[in-house]
Each structure stands twice: as C-alpha cells, then as structure tokens.
C-alpha cells in the first residue's frame, strides 16, 4: 500500500529530501468528481524529482508522493490550520487552484468524511514515512536534516504581489534550524539567481512540525521559482481546456534546468557537508 502512495529512496548521509507536491496522479473515484481545472493538476511542483536526481548519487534519502496535492496537500496540517494567519491559502483538500478556479464539479467537493478518509489513506502514510526515516537517520548519524523541496510559478497574484525571488528559503524565522545552518544559508550565493530567507515563504507544515533542535533534527524549505527551469505560462496567459495535457501548460526547459542544477547541487552538497560535520562532532562528543 505504501509503495502505491509514495516512493522512498534510502540513502547513506544524514539528509532527507521531501517533495510533497511533486505527485500528479488522481485516483479514479476522485477524478470523476473534478473539473477540467482539477484534472490539470496545474499547481504541481513540476519535475522536482528530475531536478534533484543528482542527490541520489550524493547519498541523500528522497521521498516523493504519487498523488497530486489536489487530492490532499501533504504540506498542510491535518486539522486544516492556516500557517499564514490572515493570508489567502489553499485547504488541506483544495477546492480551488492558484487562479481560484474550482477543482470540483458543483456539489461534489469533499465533505468532512471524505477529507478524513484522505488523511488516513494518503496523508498519514507519507508523514509516518518522513518520521520513520528521520528516526533512522538520527539513529545512524546522531542528527538529521530535512530539506523540503518545492517549486512554484514565479507570479501567483492570489498569494503575493509581483515576482518571487528565485530561491526562497524558509526556516520558520530561524526556529526550524540552528543558528549555524541559518548563517550557512545567508553565506551561500546562488548568483545570478536572486534569493531570500523567510520572505513570503517561511516553511510549511512539514518544515515546522518535524524540526526538533533538542533531538538534533533540523528542517528547511526551498521554494524554487519555476522560471529558473521552465518556460512558464503565467496566470491569465492561458486557460485549461478539456483533455489538455497538464505538462503542456508549462514546459520543462533543458537549457534553463542545466543552468540552475549546479546551484541546487551546490546547496545539497553544502547541506550534506554541514550535517555530516555535525554528525562527526556529536560522535566525538559522545552524543551520537
């Protein structure tokens, strides 16, 4: 059952990369209730598994879900709490997309019973796997680092004005990671790409829920602008039509991707070096 919900690549270093919005599948029973906008899964964090494929060779653990965030958003609290009070946000089981188009046919949006079914069936197994994997990593290395890998269209008027920076790091205002890791992020340069820490995105549910500095578990989120590796179709430039292949809405651009991937490699290598050194220090101090 778990294999049908997510794929977990087991690594050898103290880094877990989670991609909770990379899935694109929708179960048949849910597909029948959805509009064309829902079936397009247009708000997917497209191609992240492809962008981060290099991380396997570096020894990172990687977890990727099968199903779309339109089925259930794995980066939301199971009680539906809005992590950005006062700001617009999509729900645990979204009923509209980033352009405010309805995802469900009239009268067929998930009710509370259906939402709880999806929590049990899709949300809980993914999160249990994250918890278990972090425990395994910490048991072997004395510490663990979770990188929440996300991407988003560079312009989403529903949530923010103007254009996003290219690299958007979230550390829950420094609460999800050590001061040393925060300083490392501040020192890293991804030029010519723009970057910010705890700007519009401060880290979602997973980043906030699984940070435990007393247990040497640190977390951070990277929201990568899709303009860095895709030919974006920005809001208002096109609309989803019946039968349209969602991969045709915005296209992967190999030339752009080839330019940004070394920057992502630079980040991941830096994170692995940081957490591996921390593991060695804990071991030498008898804390591992």
UniProtKB/TrEMBL annotation:
Keywords: Hydrolase. GO terms for molecular function: N-formylglutamate deformylase activity. Its EC number is 3.5.1.68. InterPro entries: HutG_amidohyd, N-FG_amidohydro. Transmembrane segments: none annotated. NCBIfam families: hutG_amidohyd. This is N-formylglutamate deformylase. It comes from Thalassotalea mangrovi.
